[in-house]
Amino acid sequence: MSETPYGFDAAKLRVARTAAGTSVARIARATGVSERAVSLYLAGTRTPRPEILMQLAKAVGTDPAALCTVEHETLAHLRIFTGRSRSAMARQLGMAEETYRQMETTGQRGRLARSRYDDHEDRWIAWQEWASPLFGVTAERLDAAEQHTREQHLAERERRWQRLRLAAPDRAVRIEDLGRAGRRLRRR
């Protein structure tokens, strides 16, 4: 599964458990983990893996997103809320794992994720229409997650670039010069 931080919130699990009126033992049996693990999740000292998050949500009668605090959902969040690994999500979407990883990291869809032809309906179907059910969300929520993924990627890229400029200004200047030279060559 993923090591992507996804905003698990122990307080929300405690509230959901209370609302469901269920015991630690019952949650442990439903999720297939030990009572100690459930206690650690409830205490906030351990974060469940995405597939366990799915089981915890089912055990307390809610959905995985309700057990998390996320300012802006990204594609990684949507995948994790389905309880899938990157490779499982890539298979579900019918693309190579590396292609999916790139999309989840940058928010940029390649050719494979633009539209698909549906033989049954004899028409092309847009990405949002065919992919949103696989993520278990609406097309609008998928669009918003893609946008937040792109913004997060660009912000992280800018932070790395700023660190490089501070740590090795000569190297940063050489990289900028190479980038300008490459852009000039592509224009020819």
TrEMBL record:
SUPFAM superfamilies referenced in this protein's UniProt entry, alphabetically: lambda repressor-like DNA-binding domains
Ranges of residues in domain HTH cro/C1-type: 13-67
Cited InterPro entries: Cro/C1-type_HTH, Lambda_DNA-bd_dom_sf
One Pfam family matching this protein: HTH_31
Top-level taxonomic group: Bacteria
Protein name: HTH cro/C1-type domain-containing protein
Organism: Streptomyces spororaveus
